[in-house]
Amino acid sequence: MRADLRRRSVLAAAVMTVPLVAAGCKGVGALGTPPEPGPDVAMLRGAIGTEQALIARYRSAMAGSPALSGTLGPLLAQHREHLARLTSMLIEPAGHSASPDTTPSAAGTAAAGAGPAATLAALEAAEADAARSLASRLTLAPPALAQLMASIAASEASHALLLRTHQAGG
Amino acid sequence: MTGAAGPATTDPAGRARTAAALQSALAAENAAIYGYGVAGAQLGTAARAQALRDWTQHEVARDQLQAMLTSLGVKPVAAQPAYRLPFPVHGTRAAISLAGYLENQVAAAYLGIVALDDSRLRTWGAGQARACALRATTWLGRTVAFPGLAPGAGPATARPSASP
User: Fold this and answer.
1) Of B130, B142, B152, the CB nearest to A154
2) What pLDDT is recorded for position B7?
């Protein structure tokens, strides 16, 4: 009970202190020239693109190997959470689309037709790459974005571990 | 001593922020070391060996944090004699849940280090948060979307509660 209350108050405090990352806000175009997006916006767009590519890969893998859905479904759901949280940090002038979730990706179709073991191995490699890429760039990000990138990188590294475990377990 | 080469912070405010983040991580490591002792006592032979390995990794990280704080001229926080557990720990399942819980708490504290300006400390903190997430996944057999972060926004509470 007390722990629950404490958690709630910490959450409320966290919500209030999360800074907005992007320069500018919705509708600013109506008021004048939109500000130039900062380097952190480019970094955020890169991370969003990586999540979209991973989501496409998982969807393709599950379509090609329905038997893997129980393993891959929860990981796909977590990538959607990554994408939503990254996208929520990106505030762009009207006219930019922050989350074209339906973008077809060459990487997304590569796994189709491969066997389950090859599919798991390919996803494991993609997760490890994504985690490494985020980890290597987070020194350049503003603090709140760096924390989010580190957390997502940790999540993706653990995805890779879980996928490796499933390969070993057959 | 990967990240312990020395926080190169010069301004007093930056030093204070660095010291506070390192102390929070140290406090979380102290609690995790205590908690792994509790969990290990409830586990069978194989799982207890894994708990011992993880416990050792937390001890190594604790030693690194203590060295980093000392090099900043700050006295490292001491471990409490006992910590209040987040839930009763009787039996294997609760022990495994406790290990997963502790790893997420420690990861949250390391994300505090990731928010610092020093890029070496950031990288080290991110590596530690990653190690926590991997250990949690090994224990629980599942992953989470945001290790160390509350589901809504911002870092999860990093301070395990000490017993009164």
Assistant:
1) B130
2) 56
